[in-house]
């Protein structure tokens, strides 16, 4: 009689189970890799957004720290307030100093505005001359993309923040009215939100044209840079 032969191969069920296990492990591995890759990509995007925000804060801070109580007139003779906010097309518009004195910008001052475009871009707008500036002299610079909302709020004499400046309940001398402090809030499309509080011009001496910012004299205006 011939001895019995023993088969050491795999059955079909065992092969199918092994294939299923291998497929599941592959799926879990790919999902884990994609999750890590997405987290790294989001971290890079958040870091880039934070870096852009810091650049924006630096420029906005420089503009507002050199705020000046100087109203302007357009080419039609219409008087614009030294600081206005909440009126289209700009979020805020004001006069800043601390610049080199030029023929078209005596005293080192110019007009600055900020607006938010329909493409979610925060744009800085400047006019080289304060009075009678033509529309073709306007210069625009995109500071940041992916911005969902920007708010400028102004602290009034009653210690309340106003979204519109000059306040609607003030009827006289609005061209020279300045906020005591300014709160800026920027929110990105990614959900990142940051706020900063900047000093305004707290007191203006009517006699002699003196100006005080936050209780400090502003006599060193020529040293602004």
Question: Can you give a write-up of this model?
Answer:
This protein is of the alpha+beta class and 225 residues long. It has one domain (59-218). It is 24% helix and 32% strand. The protein has 1 helix and 15 strands, in the order αβββββββββββββββ. Strand 2 and strand 3 (79-80) form a beta hairpin. The longest helix is centred in the first third of the chain and has 54 residues, at 12-65. Residues 203-225 have low confidence and may be disordered.
Question: Top keywords for this entry?
Answer:
alpha+beta; single chain; disordered C terminus; 225 residues; 1 helix
Summarize this, please?
The protein has 225 residues and is an alpha+beta fold. The chain has one helix spanning 12-65, and strands at 67-68, 72-73, 79-80, 83-87, 90-96, 110-116, 121-127, 139-145, 147-155, 161-162, 181-188, 193-199, 203-204, 211-213, 216-217. It has one domain (59-218).
Beta-strand residue percentage: 25-35%
Query: Termini separation (Å)?
Result: 109 Å
> How many helical stretches?
1
Write down the secondary-structure element order. HEEEEEEEEEEEEEEE
Q: What gross morphology would you assign?
A: elongated
Alpha-beta content class: alpha+beta
Q: Give the total of beta strands.
A: 15
> What number of domains?
1
For the biggest sheet, the summary is:
6 strands, antiparallel
What is the residue-averaged pLDDT?
A: 79
Q: What is the share of helical residues? A: 10-25%
